[in-house]
Amino acid sequence: MSVLTILEFPDPRLRTRAAPVAVFDAQLKRLVADMFETMYAANGVGLAATQVDVHQRVLVIDMSDERDQPLVLVNAEIVEKDGAQVYQEGCLSFPGIYADVTRALKVKVKAQDADGQAFFYEAEGPQAVAVQHELDHLDGKVFVDYLSPLKRSLLLKRLEKQRKQAASA
Ligand code: GNR
Ligand code: NI
User: Fold this and answer.
1) What's the pLDDT tens digit per position in 52-65?
2) Residue 124, number of CB atoms within 10 A of its CB
């Protein structure tokens, strides 16, 4: 297993739309294992393959405090959504930047596991936020896309400033 490099905004590769997984082979299982290792190493609650420059519809989530509830969704599609919630989001591709985003409160997804077995998964609250945030990455979308232009430019300036400070420290 390996910790992979996470692409950071404004890397244009984050705008790539991922293709469906067609072959459920050892290479896919290796990708999933590496994505979990990368997510845990970065203390993230989710990771989309897009963020590690693999443009296939694979996402991993673990919202548990104990970091022992790995969930992998391959070729996930939202089939139902309900309600709304505002949640303060962060993203491993925007280190140190947080902003409130409004999303559905509940989602039901149809997905496949790493063996290609289809299943339904229902999430509510923070879990539902994570699923929607990761699915957006697979479509080349990031959380700051939901903000007003003013708020977005403020946060992106802050990101630049933090990077400069980190580089000179
Ligand atoms: O680690 C993460 N935390 C987080 C917090 C609030 C809302 C969404 C997230 S996902 C993020 C990891 C990440 O960037 N996944 O794409
Ligand atoms: Ni993210």
Assistant:
1) 999 999 999 999 99
2) 15
